[in-house]
Structures are given as structure tokens and as C-alpha cells.
Design goal:
single chain, 370 residues, alpha+beta, four-stranded antiparallel beta sheet, two-stranded parallel sheet, disordered C terminus, membrane, Histocompatibility (minor) 13, endoplasmic reticulum
Length: 370
């Protein structure tokens, strides 16, 4: 998922010469907003309990304060590197290599996304066989597991379906296949990338706020890469769908970074809500509504001024500001910034052994229990 976060993070029209109808514009932007909300909502819910998986590939990656501080620098280097590649080398060959890379990642991401739904609809009459993919290094007492992936018949079906979508994307580059992969990347990012506390989230969002504004308004790098990069790192929706149907070709787009970066912060606030044990989701609902407000404001400004906008310019103040104001009003601001609510331990281990579901830590700080 990480490469998708370092790509373009703005909403823009690909062809400036195309004039969309008001209906087509409203449909395109409304669809982008709806698609952006799906991985944030479901990814946040899945992030609460994703630690119960025994597969190492399903365990969350924790972003620390140091990681958050470095991320805008790494993202800037990656973005500028892509810009230079597109300027120096043939765009066709670069996109071919990137397409193959994201073809593999997309199949795995989409398969992981479909797995919970397949568990619900899979017929009970069909026998389920278990499989294990194991790679080790060394022998005897020095033997070390590199990959230990367990899967079953349902996972195999998800993999086959995902491969069909991947072949469709490689052959046709159809926008629906692109969006299926993009939604899978975004949902997996929100689910599996965990911030260790609110302060780290503020550092990450603040750094990428500056990154987004600089590369969109300060240079033409972001927009150039966005238009040249043919990979499912953005959601797209045609503005001429009403006129041309599924064969439409004039797209509005939203970079996955504008979904995943605020999304992992919103997921953190949901885990914070759970850790308070008050049976409310105040901070999650507040930040979710703040995201809708920020994205809507981005679209309005872009449509009014006819210029690509760095969405994080509007999303970051909204997603941080609204929950902080609520915490101030509730007198929970100190608790919000001191609590550590990222630790998810697998079922049957640690202090939550009696509970079959992993529990976000609500210790008020780093302690032995955390």
C-alpha cells in the first residue's frame, strides 16, 4: 500500500478542454466522495480487530512519531523521482513496469478485502480445505520463519476473482477495474496502518499538509505525475458517463493518499472511542463528518477556481480540528493526547487472552499492559 500513498494527492480534471455538464459533474464528484467514504468506514471498523489474524501479512504496521516525521520527506523524494523518470524515460515502458507491479499488489489487496464477505456467503455444503504457504531460513535451532501464510478454499476463490479483475485491468485499463483495485488498496491501508497515538497522527497529517500544498501550488510535479502515472493509485469517475456510458473517458480523480492518510487518523479515533469504554463513537463520527466536510470543500474550491487542489489543505484542519474541539468541550483533551490505543494482540495471548477479539489498549500511556 505504501507506494500508493506517495502518489498524487489531489482532485483534478485530466483534460482541461473538456466541459462537463452540471449533471455529469455532480455525478462524478458525488461518486468520488461516496467511494472515498467506503474504505475509511469499513477500514476503520476492521482496524479495531485486525490483530486477531494469525497470518503475519494481516498484522497491522504501527507508525511511530519518527516514522511520521520522515514520511513527508520519503514521499517527496519518491514523487520527484517519478517526475524525473517520466521526463527522462519513455512513459510507456515505465507505466508497463508499474502496471505489472500493481497487478500483483492489487490481486493480493483485493483478495484480502473480499475475504470477510466470502466467509459470510460461502455455502456450508462445500467442504473447506486448509492450506499453508511456509518459507523458512536456516535449519535446526537456527531455523527462522520468513513467510507463514495460512489460507483455505474461500481464500482461493477470492484469489481467482481478484486475478480476473487484475487481468481485466492489465488488458483494458478500465476505470471500474482501476477503482476496484484502488478501493482495495485504500481499505487495506486504513485497516493495517496503525498510528500509535494522536500526537503521531497530528505529526503525520501536518507534515503531509505541507507536502501536498508545496507540490501542488509550488511546482507542477504533482499534477504532471498524476496525469502520467497509469496505476490504480487514484479513484476515477467519468464526467461524461451520462453521454457515453461505461465507455466514458473524461475523468475526475481523487488520489488514494487523500483517503488513506486521513483514514488511518479516523480509524485511530475509533479505537480511541473503543478504549474509553463508554459505548459511544463520538470522535469517530465527528472525524468522519469532518472528512466529508473537508472533501466537499476541496471539490467546491476546485470547481470554482478551475484549478487542481491539494485536498489535504482542507482535510487536515478539518479532521484534526473538529475532534480536538469536541475533546475540549468534553474535557478529554489531555486524555486524548496521552492515551495509547494501538496495541492489538492476537486472540488467546497477552492480557486479553480471555477475550476472543483483540482489544485496543486504553491505559492512558505506555505501561507493561500496553
Amino acid at each position: 500500500v505504501i507506494p500508493s500513498l506517495t502518489g498524487p494527492h489531489e482532485i483534478a480534471d485530466i483534460l482541461e478542454t473538456f466541459v462537463a455538464t452540471p449533471e455529469g459533474t455532480a455525478l462524478a464528484y458525488g461518486s468520488l466522495v461516496f467511494m472515498a467514504l467506503l474504505p475509511i468506514f469499513f477500514g476503520a471498523l476492521r482496524s479495531v480487530s485486525c490483530g486477531k489474524s494469525k497470518n503475519s501479512s494481516d498484522m497491522p504496521e504501527t507508525i511511530t512519531g519518527r516514522d511520521a516525521a520522515r514520511f513527508p520527506i520519503i514521499a517527496s523524494c519518491t514523487l520527484f523521482g517519478l517526475y524525473l523518470f517520466f521526463k527522462i524515460f519513455s512513459q510507456e515502458y515505465i507505466n508497463l513496469l508499474l502496471s505489472m507491479y500493481f497487478f500483483v499488489l492489487g490481486i493480493l489487496a483485493l483478495s484480502h478485502t473480499m475475504s470477510p464477505f466470502m466467509n459470510r456467503i460461502f455455502p456450508a455444503s462445500i467442504p473447506i480445505k486448509q492450506y499453508q504457504l511456509l518459507f523458512t531460513q536456516g535449519s535446526g535451532e537456527t531455523k527462522e520463519e520468513i513467510v507463514n501464510y495460512e489460507f483455505d478454499t474461500k481464500d482461493m476463490i477470492c484469489l481467482v476473482i481478484s486475478t480476473v479483475v487484475g487481468v481485466w485491468y492489465i488488458l483494458k485499463k478500465h476505470w471500474i477495474a482501476n477503482n476496484l483495485f484502488g478501493l482495495a488498496f485504500a481499505l487495506n491501508g486504513v485497516e493495517l496502518l496503525h498510528l500509535n497515538n494522536i500526537s503521531t497522527g497530528c505529526i503525520l497529517l501536518g507534515g503531509l499538509f505541507v507536502y501536498d500544498v508545496f507540490w501542488v501550488f509550488g511546482t507542477n510535479v504533482m499534477v504532471t505525475v498524476a496525469k502520467s502515472f497509469e496505476a490504480p493509485i487514484k479513484l476515477v469517475f467519468p464526467q461524461d458517463l451520462l453521454e457515453k456510458g461505461l465507455g466514458a473517458s473524461q475523468f475526475a480523480m481523487l488520489g488514494l493518499g487523500d483517503i488513506v492518510i486521513p483514514g488511518i487518523f479516523i480509524a485511530l479515533l475509533l479505537r480511541f472511542d473503543v478504549s474509553l469504554k463508554k459505548n459511544t463513537r463520538t470522535y469517530f463520527h465527528t472525524s468522519f463528518l469532518a472528512y466529508i466536510f473537508g472533501l466537499g470543500l476541496t471539490i467546491w474550491v476546485m470547481h470554482t477556481f478551475k484549478h487542481a487542489q491539494p485536498a489535504l489543505l482542507y482535510l487536515v484542519p478539518a479532521c484534526i480540528g473538529f475532534p480536538v474541539v469536541v475533546a475540549l468541550l468534553k474535557g478529554e483533551l489531555t486524555e486524548m493526547f496521552s492515551i495509547v490505543c494501538y496495541v492489538n494482540e492476537p486472540a488467546g495471548s497477552g492480557p486479553w487472552a480471555a477475550n476472543p477479539y483483540p482489544q485496543p489498549c486504553g491505559c492512558g500511556g505506555v505501561t507493561a499492559a500496553c
